[in-house]
Amino acid sequence: MNRSSQDTGSQGILGDGKLYAVDSINDLHRLNLCPAGSQRLFPLEEKIPAVDTRSGHGSYSLLFMALIVVLIVSLVLVSFVIVLIVHTGNKMDDVSRRLTAEGKDIDDLKKINSMIVKQLNQLDSAQN
Q1: The dihedral sign for the CA sequence 84, 87, 93, 95
Q2: pTM of the full predicted structure?
Q3: What value does the mean pLDDT of the chain take?
């Protein structure tokens, strides 16, 4: 009553073998007793799961599809980087123009400041 897990595993394998043997015997019995074409018999290839002999082609196609996906993703990333570079370049041009304009404004403010200082110095000297 108490069976180990190895016993049940071996019973499953033996049971599968017994079912296959019984199924094969039934097919032979049908071939001998039934006239040709009266019953649809399954060929042996349909009962045994087919081993994929071209499994290498599937892995190659999967590898090929993965390569295409990687190439598409890298193309998208490169395009994104190019857009960022162009956008950053435009921003740098704007900042450069602003700095140049502000530099001119600063020079003008320095000139005005020096003129005010001269006027104040002249007023101080005139008052003394």
Answers
A1: negative
A2: 0.39
A3: 77
